[in-house]
Amino acid sequence: MPEGGGGVEAMLRTLREAPASRGFIADVRTVPPRAARVEPLPEGADPAVARYLDHRGIPALYSHQAQALRLGMAGRDLILATSTASGKTLSFGLPVLDALARDDNATALFLYPLKALTHDQLEVLLAMERASGVDLLPAVYDGDTPRIRRPRVRQESRIVLSNPFEIHETLPHHHMWRRFWSNLKYLVIDEAHRYTGVFGSNVAQLLRRLLRVAEAYGSHPTVILASASIANPGEHAENLTSRPCAVVDDDGSPAGPRHVVFWNGAVDGAPSPFTQARDLLMGLVRQGLKTLCFTQSRKGAELVASLIHKGRDGADLRVAPYRAGYLPDERRRVEKAFRDGDILGLVSTNALELGIDVGDLDAVVVAGYPGSVSAFWQQAGRAGRRGGESLAVFLAFEGILDQYVLRTPEVLLGRRFERATVDLKNEHILAGHMLCAATELPVQVDPEVQPEARVARGLAGAGLLRPTEAGYVYAGPTRPQEAVKLDRIGDAQVALVDVATNDLLETLDLERALREAFPGAVYLHGARTWLVESLDLVAGIARLRRQDVDWWTFAVTDKTADIVETYGTRSAGSVQVSTGSIRMTHRVTKYLRKRFDRVIGGGPLDLPERTFQTTALWLDVPTGARPGVTDLLGALHALEHAMVGLAPLAISCDPADMAGFSTLQAPHSGGPALFLYDGYDGGIGLSERAAEDLERFVGMTRDLLARCPCESGCPSCCLSARCGNNNEPMDKVGAVVLAREIAGHR
Question: What domains does the chain contain, in order, with CATH numbers?
């Protein structure tokens, strides 16, 4: 990439005019600047708050910061939902400082989704302690805290910084925290938008357990949540905490002009998107712009950084990778070097999307769509953090979501933020946390409240809960906290073991093991190929042998869907739309051996089927001739793939949260049908949300398929690497016809 001079504007001009950029830049948009709105410190705040602000040189607060302080001082629960770099840390830090300055015994608990965030915020609180003169005694309490230091934290610290995973393990030992729980005045939940889907549904139950323990010690802490911009902050806060929360979303912070470049990394004949990310990052760093490049995987971050250092012209650049998995000291060393300017370019996973302080940035490269509009602006918003001009480059890969956003930039620029999803009725999640809660305190269940009463009766009938006068107590043989995983609904695990050394390579959940670790499969681990020799599902072990091969394997999965219960039915065009509970059966029946895209062999597989009950929507499509539809099953299949691919954007979920299935002979009707279903036992409500807004969802899908320049389907519109039928059959043109039939002219 050509070098230039003069900062952000000059770099933008270079990008637009450079011959190497031709054909890659799809659009350039500028988000206008925003002026600050400030207010004086609210009356009645403790003098320690004014001392701290004076020390920081802050003469006035942004309007949303002042509002948060007023609400906190009044004991109101609230959620902050303002932009990146709007000063949310100060917004929730000042109410806590005010409370701890007034009451020498008061305590506060700060929860973060990542351990790296706790250490970054610890430095902020230590600086607040020094400047205010208030003994905050902040400390981190997580998996990295040495055991020798833990008793002192429990006995002395007034602010404890932790994460949900640690609290999940700590709550059964609440008696060791009596001083802390008895004086708890604030519960701060940062990055609340990350608690969505299965993770969010588990954290919602965990927070109910936490608040129940605090109440048992006589505390009723004020809750403050901080979030990126989402569509439903008030609803999300109440779902997480069970409390109605005031919404503070009128952002008073300033913002400079932000230029957004839409860069198509899937141009025919172009180098890999990772090579393009390298070139963009190197060009920005050579310009003297402090730049953060986000990739969507650990492997991507390492690959981009290695491509820079392996090149003759990049070895001398101050660029480093950053991701979860590094040792804490190494992460903090890289953070400091980037903050101090010793490193000018950083390649990171979303570990740096959150509020870790890396100083002022000029530019951000977002390599691959990060999964949501909120996440994109979290990443792009890391640049220009002090109100200056900034540049964000969205490098679109060939996938369905990336290409849709590239062709429809209004998706990002219109800032139609996604809804955060929490399901409080999933009985699998509820049962696990009810068992955990019963190890902490007796659980009282109202027999009229469903599904809690139904779950409690079932657990008692299984001998896991025992009724007493005080409520249900735990009666099982093992600690339920070990079985309840916050980031997934419990499932069996399979260990991958090297037969030569008996070393553990990694673990997979059962569903993935059946697809990827069957006997005869080629498995990639550590950038090397391994052959699977055996799969023992009883022992939960797959044995692999290291071997270099130039082919790969693909599992073919049969699916069937049986309707358990129908919740509701309506029409969309000529199609009948239903929602309900279904029983899905997945069975891997054979595998294909491929070299490049050519089948060179394969064989049958005799593996157990996996059956689970979940929520779904299904479209019953009338038979009959349709102009433009040559293969109805192929049309249904293409529409299913495109809808599943767009689901994260349309209904706010993770890419793996929703799955699909299409057939010409549905068991319930004998006719053609398309199913979209939640990919977890019990479901988390995604399918029902998709059904509520189906016409808009299908309209987005129609636009994606119609605008893609390919003739018969490609990875940018309807081909999926996750397809259990090798993307066959596929009728892209027919899918457009069906989508128009369902969505009309939307």
Answer: 8-33+255-413 (3.40.50.300), 38-248 (3.40.50.300), 438-477 (no CATH), 493-549 (no CATH), 553-743 (no CATH)
